[in-house]
Design goal:
Helices cover about 30% and strands about 30% of the residues. By secondary structure, it is α+β, with helices and mostly antiparallel strands. It has a single domain (about 1-15, about 50-179), classed as Nuclear Transport Factor 2, Chain: A, CATH 3.10.450. The strands form 3 sheets. Strands 5-6-7-8 form a 4-stranded antiparallel sheet. A two-stranded antiparallel ribbon has the order 1-2. β3 (about 110-115) and β4 (about 115-120) form a beta hairpin. The protein is globular, with a radius of gyration of 19 Å. It comes from Gracilibacillus salinarum. This is DUF3993 domain-containing protein.
Amino acid sequence: MKKFITMFTVLVLFSFAVVTMSQTSTEKTYAEENQVNTEEVTGEKQNVSNEQKEISHDKIVALTDKFMELLVQDIDDQYKVINYQTKEELMKAFEPYVTKEAVQPYIDYYYEEEKNGLYIVPTETPPWFDKSNDYEKQTKDNQVIVTQQNQNALYGEYTISLTFEKINDQWKIVNISNQ
């Protein structure tokens, strides 16, 4: 039974990887992608790079792909994680891409820490961002909220909302919610 579950999990993860790799990345182009005009307190207009306030499609895809890559770890026949021994070690791997508050629920749900190492709970990956589907972006209080409507055979119709924030000049996922 364990071999069946392992093979099923590997098959699902492999299928997910093949589908995401084979889909072409559609880029949204905006006339204001590179620059936006703002007024200083003095009333003068200056050009400010939109990168400071807006996250690109490529960066959204890179961060969401990295999240899923880190969430789905290599395991042995007993579901023991090969590259990390503790939840804390795994959490540190996410630090450049996701805040601790955003990733903690996923690590707590998908992993169990035991005396002899870290184990993945054999289950499906969560409903996630699909880079080939359209989405809405909303900028609010130095954060960009990306909302996407998706549908798949496992979860049916769902909405995912990802909040990105620039922290120390690096975009990070700071909140994830599914409906």
